[in-house]
Amino acid sequence: TWFSSGLWPFFTLGWPEKTNELDFFYPTNVLVTGYDIIFFWVARMIFFGIEMMGEIPYAFVSIHGIVRDSLGRKMSKSLNNGIDPLEVIDKFGADALRFSLAAGSAPGADMRFYWEKVESARNFCNKIWNASRFVMMNLEGATIDSELKSMDISDKWILTKMDRLIEKVTDNLEKFEFGLAAGNAYDFAWSEFCDWYIEMAKPRLYGDNEADKATANGVLVTVLTTILKLLHPLMPFITEEIYLSLPNADATIMTSEWPKSSRYAYGDETAAMESVMELIRQIRNIRAEMNVGPGKKAKLLLKTSGEKKAQLKACEAYLIKLAYASDIAFIESDMDIPKNAVSVVAEIAECFMPLGDLIDIEKEIERLEKELAETDGEIKRCAGKLANKGFTDKAPEAVIKAEEEKLAKYTEMKQKIGDRLAALKER
Question: Can you give the pLDDT of all 427 residues of the chain as single tens digits?
């Protein structure tokens, strides 16, 4: 059987006759197969192709592993541990099954089948569907600025991140790294687009400035269209359904142009936006630690200066919405810090929140002391690395510079945390 199967690449196309099919389809591009038949089938097709056709039958062989059961056993009739794909599709959908298998794959490595993974992939499909409904709901009767004339910092951030994603996913797929492609697309779509950018766009979408609204709609459509195209090889059905509902869609997503990168490169704005996002995360974490719900608004007092202050001012609307702030004010000195205030020390600014009875001073001192110890640990790690001659002699200059910048950042953070601790203990 395996011997005769070696004839498959050309015998099925009419060989030994010189047919149009044989001329068009031989050689082909990619063979996808499991590692268990490399010798039985793959090698024999190559032998026969060289002997009978004068050239190998395909340019690449993508070798995947075997899907095993949750215990790592090969699926077999004797163990009765096989999974019927139609049963999975009936319960969670074809896209969820396909994406869960792609997301868990690595070239040549076996993978275990878990129903929970398919359910997680189904949830991701739902996330994309709901985000798309939100975008299309806001497009009804609205103007879309496809030229993106009046972008703000959040628009430039998401478009730059989208550009980087295109490069990553394209490179992953060209190298047959389907698991990495799925992971990169998942992280961007779920976190950066759905959890962050859509929330940032809402104040403008619900505001009165028509130009800002049109730009936000334009960015939403641009990014969503790109996400759908990048996900299409992994989730073909839902992406096609959504794509055909978008403005200026082609007849089908399958024949639309693959996204191109190098269109957006706003490095400074992206770095600034991510610094603000890190501050928001820290504020949320502190509130969560203190069991302060989103409904309880707090005034944010920000201590920073220069360019960082300008960046924060450009993001005030996002801070108010995403950090659950009632108001934002900038302070110049520690004298302006109210008593019983909880603090957050981020690279872009120190933030103080007067939460009144919601804060326990002793617990805040305990938290800051823990943070100080962690910062001390990072300083020792960076300093130790830079003092290691083996590291400084062999590491690239960019890596050494990155460690020096980390050391400077943690040293500055330590000073700020120490100052805040001293101020709290005096009260």
Answer: 788 899 999 999 999 999 999 999 999 999 999 888 999 999 999 999 999 999 999 999 999 988 998 898 999 888 999 999 999 999 999 999 999 999 988 888 899 999 999 999 999 999 999 999 999 999 888 888 888 888 999 999 999 999 999 999 999 999 999 999 999 999 999 999 999 999 999 989 998 888 999 999 999 999 999 999 999 999 999 999 999 999 888 999 999 999 998 788 899 999 999 999 999 999 999 888 776 778 888 888 899 888 989 989 888 889 999 998 888 989 888 777 877 778 888 889 988 887 664 556 677 788 889 999 999 999 999 999 999 988 899 889 889 999 999 999 999 999 988 887 887 676 6
Which is nearest to 203 in space by CA: 318, 343, 309?
318
Asked whether the whole model's pTM tops 0.85, one would answer: no
Secondary structure of 213-272 as H, E, C letters:
HHHHHHHHHHHHHHHHHHHCCCCHHHHHHHHCCCCCCCCCHHHCCCCCCCCCCCHHHHHH
